[in-house]
User: Fold these one by one.
Assistant:
Number 1:
Amino acid sequence: MLTIAGILIAVAIIIAIDVPVLLRKKLHKELWLFSFLLCLGTVLGIVQALHIQIANPMDWLIMVYKPVADLVETWLK
């Protein structure tokens, strides 16, 4: 629980530093991207702090391309 509190405090500090600058410069697209990436990183950090297993993106790629690779391999033999 202390780890999650630390993550949230770090996120609050990052927001306090970066968001006013983005708003002052009227960089709205950058603010949306910044917000999305910060939320994604926060969620992943909290999930890791709670020791929850999440799927590795490489596993998804292997699942998609393995049948294709096997098919090509049988054609080449």
Number 2:
Amino acid sequence: MKKLRIAAALAAAALAATACGGGSGDGAQTLTIWHYEDPEGGIGKAWTEAIAEFRKTHPDVTVEFEEKSFEQMQKTAPMVLNSDGAPDVMEYNKGNATTGLLARQGLLTDLTGEVTKRGWDKLLAPSLQTTAKYDAKGVMGGDKWYGVPNYAEYVMVYYNKDLFEKHDVKVPTTLEEFTAGLDTFTKAGVTPIAMAGNEYPGQHLFYEFVLNRAQRSWVDDYQRYTGKVDFNGPELAGAAQTFADWVSKGYLAKDSAGIKAEAMGTAWMAGKYPVVISGTWWYERFTSEVKNFAWGTFLFPGNRLHPGSAGNHWVVPTRSDSKDLAQEFIALTMSRRIQNRIANEGAVAVAADPGAVTNPKYKDLATTYQRLVAQDGLAFYPDWPVPGYYDTLLAGTQTLLNRSKSPQQFLGDMRKPYEDNLADIGG
């Protein structure tokens, strides 16, 4: 029987989660679900619907939902999953440093047989499968499924059409055109890019610069250890220098190093900045909350590869007491109805019916995603290769933003944990 777990209310769903676990002695099962999606966001709304449907179809099951934060899961998952407090199914970040690490530590259930039996592998494009499958060393792209994604994501440029028109800046198609537009804004006394150096956006921008110079083979070498990575090569060294140059040119606000992602997003929504470079996870919120100006998006100019992948995925902890129920719940979130709900709420679904997407803006989002998948344009995220690399890159990009270290010093700080991890896994 599952021990008592504290249940949190399902926000914005009017679905009260019970506080009693499966240990009541009545033989009932409990399914405990953890995720960190905004309950008002597209994915959160779709998963709330899935939880409600699961309750209806499993009246004898006590469903307990706990909302976590991304940072909370990032820092505590290895400890929690190795305890009696592990949930039955949870959303978790993909990549070597997160899902790969937990798989290598034996904390996650091998879902390969279930994926094949339920046909989930047929719903996911090969490039999306990479981040769901790991080898014995915990490196993605392996032969065993430890995660199942049901949405996708990518990083792009959101721009304020009104400010672009006011300053006569055109939508760029090359990096040179982009920087020329940024120069136009700075000469007019406008800081062009909203930035958050105290969370993920700083390292995402750095990786855009890397991918501007990189080929797919380099991405595989860096992310999957298929070849040696030169930290003084044009991809990383050039990106670090470009990042420092953009800071010195005033493209990013001087206080960016201390800003969180939420403050970055709200500042852009308030019309204070022409540009914000971030992921599709903002798309639905911008659609619903931006009322005072027209806006649009474009992929980072000049890049064939972009930060992005299948979204964070469902994993089933090894210590789950209800693995069968966990897999049934995952299946529900992969169903066409829930997939269509994800797409119609402004998120990127992996198996929706394109004809079922009714909002024109959301159709554009889905179309861009399909184009990226078709050209193998999703290149993952820079912190994935190494456990703890998120914090390394967070601190490193902050030093570039506040000019406390040179690009060469930043790369030195980045190189050591990468090479240490490579040695640790026998690479």
Number 3:
Amino acid sequence: MVHKSMRSDGVHLRVLREPLSIIFQKSKQFSEVLTDWNRGNITPIFTKGKKEDMGNYGLVSLTFMPSKIMEQILLETVLRHMENKEMIDGQHDFRKGNMCLSNLAAFYGEVTVVVNEGRATDAICVDLYKAFDTVLHDIRVL
């Protein structure tokens, strides 16, 4: 049985902590990421429909796990900074605790104020759910 602080290959996470910490600090210090960490293995993943139809596959980039960890740390740090500086107050989708419902409530509140003031208002709603599936990507797999 593998202990929860061990990886599936039996390596204890403490063994990785120090070298990864050093790499993360050096990456921050020099504003660079190791070249191999930027590489991803692009793999088609079946989504739905007939497997013979290439349109039913989505491309997924499989990347090195430590780079994913560093990416998550950076994302959380940047989002925390932006929220503390109130730079992304109107964003809802990608922030924790915010969703379509909070977006709708904020929109409704703004429209209610404008209408109560007797001003005209227009709204345009765009559904981008499938937007990235329709973009043509010229991706070469090495």
